[in-house]
C-alpha cells in the first residue's frame, strides 16, 4: 500500500487544485469528492476512481478495486488536501461526465418527460440540493449558464451521489428551446407575471420548469421564453422562498400523479 507523507506530493497538489479551481477541473476532466458516504455511493454505482487518499482506520470496503491509485496519508496531510473544514478521512477523484442535451426530449423509461431548468442559481449547496431532489422525484435537470459549477465540492457534497447515478445537462437557452418546441413541451417559469397561475392548478406531468436565484429570479431572456409563469401560494407576509425549497415544492407537485 502506498503511503504519502508530504502535503506537497504531486497527487496532493492535484487534489487541492481540483477542490479550488473550476478551470482546473475542466482542464483535467476530474472532480474531487470527500467523505465515506460519497465513496460508498461511488462504489454502489460502479464509478471509476482515478485516485483515492485515506487516513488510517477508514473502511474502504470494495473501493480499492475501483480506484486506480490508493494511498494512505496522515491526518495533517488529509487536512491540507480535503476541502472540508473537518475532514472525514477520505478524498477521491472521479471523472466528469458528458452533459450535452439529447437531440430529442423523449419520455424516460417510466414514461415521464419532466425537466427542471436552473437559471443563474449560484449557490453550490442549493444546486446540489436541487439536483438530489429532482433525481428523487423523476425529473431530468439542465443548468443554464450562470449557475454554480456542477463539480464544485459543495455541489457534489449536497448532491449526495446524484453525480454518480444521473446525467445532469448543461446548455444554453437556445439549445433548450430548440428541443422543447419539437417535443411540444411548455416552459413554465417560477416567477410573477400577468399570466401567473397557482402551481396547484397546473399540469406538470409534461413540461419544463425554470427556477432562478432567490435574489434575482429568472433572467429576462428565460422569462421571455416561458409559455406561462407559475407561483407557489404562501403567506402574504413572505416575499420568496429559497431556490432549493421552491424547487422542491414544484418537483413534488409534478410527481404527485405518478
The number of strands is 12
Order of helices and strands: EHHEHEHEHEEHEHHEHEEEHEH
Computed Rg: 20 Å
What share of the residues lie within helices? 25-40%
Strand content: 15-25%
Shape label: elongated
How large is the count of helical segments?
11
**Poorly predicted tracts of residues:** none
Order of strands across the main sheet = 8-7-6-11-9-12-10
Quick check: average pLDDT?
A: 94
Structural class: alpha/beta
Reported for the largest beta sheet, the result is:
7 strands, parallel
Could you tell me how far the N terminus lies from the C terminus, measured between alpha carbons in angstroms? 49 Å
Task: Describe what this molecule looks like in 3D.
By secondary structure, the protein is an alpha/beta fold. The chain has helices spanning 10-20, 22-28, 36-44, 63-66, 75-81, 124-136, 153-159, 162-165, 173-180, 220-225, 243-255, and strands at 2-4, 30-34, 52-54, 70-73, 90-95, 113-119, 140-143, 168-170, 187-190, 197-198, 206-212, 228-231. The strands form two sheets. It has a seven-stranded parallel β-sheet. A five-stranded mixed β-sheet has the order 1-4-3-5-2, sandwiched between helices. Helix 6 (124-136) runs parallel beside helix 7 and helix 6 runs parallel beside helix 11 (243-255). It is elongated. The protein starts with a strand and ends with a helix. The mean pLDDT is 94.
